[in-house]
Design a protein that fits this description.
8-stranded mixed β-sheet, alpha/beta, about 280 residues, about 20% strand, 10 helices
């Protein structure tokens, strides 16, 4: 009998520990997904660009961002949405490339990132922050949605897809290195073999379900050597997208160096995309 009691005790403790770990994953998953940093490493001034700080009110504080206006007032505008790590300063290289196309650019830090106020971000707050940026462009800068291109990298791609589902009049989407859903990403994580990660998710970012209803033109970019998000996910998004679409897979490019490998062709492709799908040209 003592042996059986010991076995039952060990089993009970094991189940308790497993349940506690599941609870830890459920409660702490946002800390495993989002990696904001506060300190800004650079500003557009470092590159001789005209810019201004902007501050946007949101329900729990304010967002900080940079507005880089084009010299041509009829030029198109990009809303750049960065990924899950760093802040706007660590993503400045792409902002500069978009500005070099002759377009205006707005980039923002989500709540919890950079100089934006807290709290620590969540899926719904990301969506609210992108919508606040859109309203700023519309009301404060007079940018019509038909002249706006949303560019999202990685997590920013999922946020951009949600924004386009809420504001279908946006001219176009550019989605770089993004994923089909957080559930699909979770199956690739180290926790998947041990825990029911799909059932524990509260942050879902289900882009694959949303693109089936998008009618606006969408350009998907993905590095074939992406070790963070498989390029096959962009292929799935491309296949499921209802509206006009393009897919460009860049050989040798990883998750954060796609523009380096793409070189001058990056700007050429985006210019062609703008010429074809956006109502105004720089």
């Amino acid at each position: 009998m003592p042996v059986f009691k010991l076995l039952f005790s060990v089993l009970g403790i094991s189940i308790l520990v497993y349940v506690v770990l599941c609870g830890w994953l459920w409660m702490g998953q946002r800390r495993l997904m989002f990696f904001p940093t506060a300190a800004l490493e650079a500003t557009p001034q470092s590159f001789g660009l005209a810019w201004e700080d902007i501050w946007l009110p949101v329900s729990s504080g304010h967002l900080h961002g940079w507005w880089l206006p084009a010299s041509n007032p009829t030029a198109p505008t990009f809303l750049y949405l960065h990924g899950n790590a760093g802040n706007i300063s660590t993503n400045l290289d792409r902002v500069i490339l978009l500005r070099s196309l002759g377009a205006s650019v707005l980039t923002i830090d989500y709540r919890g990132y950079g100089l934006s106020s807290g709290p620590f971000p969540s899926e719904e707050q990301f969506y609210e922050d992108a919508l606040a940026a859109y309203h700023f462009l519309q009301s404060e800068r007079g940018i019509s949605p038909q002249h706006l291109i949303v560019y999202g990298h990685s997590l920013g791609g999922a946020i951009g897809i949600e924004l386009a589902s809420r504001v279908p009049q946006i001219a176009a989407l550019v989605i770089e290195g993004s994923f089909t859903s957080m559930a699909d990403m979770a199956t690739l994580s180290q926790y998947n073999g041990w825990f029911p990660v799909k059932w524990l998710l509260t942050q879902r970012f289900n882009s694959l379900a949303k693109v089936r209803y998008l009618k606006l033109p969408t350009l998907y970019l993905h590095g074939l050597a992406d070790a963070s998000v498989p390029a096959s996910m962009s292929q799935q998004l491309y296949s499921a997208t209802a509206g006009p679409k393009e897919l460009w897979l860049i050989p040798n490019a990883d998750h954060n160096d796609l523009t380096d490998w793409a070189g001058a062709e990056f700007q050429n492709r985006l210019r062609q995309f703008l010429d074809q799908h956006v109502l105004v040209n720089p």
